[in-house]
Amino acid sequence: MSDSTRGTTLADLERRVAERRAGPAYGDDALIVCDRLVRIFTADGVEVQALQGLDLLVREGELTALVGASGSGKSTLMNILAGLDVPTAGAARVAGRDLLTMDAGARLRYRRDVVGFVRQQTARNLLPYLTAAQNVALPMQLRGGTKRARKAERVRELLAMLDVAECRDRLPHRMSGGQQQRVAIAVALANAPSVLLADEPTGELDSATGEQVFAAFRRANEELGTTIVIVTHDRAVAGEVRRAVAVRDGRTSSEVLRRTEVDAEGRESMVAREYATLDRAGRLQLPAEYTEALGMEHRVLLELEPDHIAVRPDDDGS
Ligand SMILES: Nc1ncnc2c1ncn2[C@@H]1O[C@H](COP(=O)(O)OP(=O)(O)OP(=O)(O)O)[C@@H](O)[C@H]1O
């Protein structure tokens, strides 16, 4: 028994549990909450755990990139957040909607009103026989309740903001890949969703065009305040955002936060800091290069210092 637990009475423990229950719930102030999310697929009798207890909080107004190798579970997470797939266990909430318990009607309304979705395949985001303006107007028509003049105005505003006003009357096949993706962002924003999700939106584009599309996401985030989550396997793309969360083996493992600092001469520079994710159970994933450098395997020694926790190799030798 450690010094801190020695002398703890049952009454103390009961009080602590009561205090914890009375406190705010996990992710109380977040727009997107994933709490120990699990998704298991079964194919030909073989189980694949695509998400293995993933925790993620996204606050309103954030622009977040989810980065990870192929097969790490990014698309699975995206499909769940988009309301296209249902998790096996855990909890997922977006803008107050519980993604596990929604019935078919609520799921349809969720996909129409709460989230906007941009896919990697440029050709799948737009209807080929409608112009850019008609594509953007369509979600408003399907929802109903928007006056014709207001619809036309919103189409104009969105296309101008995303720098594709000149594509207004063009069919998708007469637009470049980058223009198609920017029109697709306008379509996804048409019904003013709480969250805009994008799965590898620059995957089919060259890097210069990809940057333009990324700039369009940033503009939507800054000008409309829309919360945006973008999945990418491209680390360079992830460098364009203030928050990049790494997904590894179906869990969030680390994240990089960037902020602008101004020095004494007034010069601005971007400062990046990398953090490890501490999950709800207190688990931490140590980077392989760190553990390998110190020959850490199987078990490590932990020591609580006044301002940090030290992790040391096992020196027992047995
Ligand atoms: N419908 C499915 N049936 C069976 N296994 C699946 C299914 N969807 C995904 N998986 C598996 O789940 C794991 C995670 O896949 P996911 O597509 O989420 O990864 P990803 O990080 O998005 O990869 P990529 O960048 O290649 O799309 C993989 O092992 C994949 O094979």
Automatic annotation (TrEMBL):
Signal peptide: none
Protein name: ABC transporter ATP-binding protein
GO molecular function per UniProt: ATP binding
Annotated SpoVT-AbrB domain residues: 273-316
InterPro entries: AAA+_ATPase, ABC_transporter-like_ATP-bd, ABC_transporter-like_CS, ABC_transpr_LolD-like, MacB-like_ATP-bd, P-loop_NTPase, SpoVT-AbrB_dom
SMART domains referenced in this protein's UniProt entry, alphabetically: AAA
Statement: the UniProt record of this protein carries the keyword Signal: no
The ABC transporter domain, residue ranges: 35-284
Key words, A-Z: ATP-binding, DNA-binding, Nucleotide-binding, Transport
Source superkingdom: Bacteria
Phylogenetic lineage: Bacteria, Bacillati, Actinomycetota, Actinomycetes, Kitasatosporales
CDD domains named in the record: ABC_MJ0796_LolCDE_FtsE
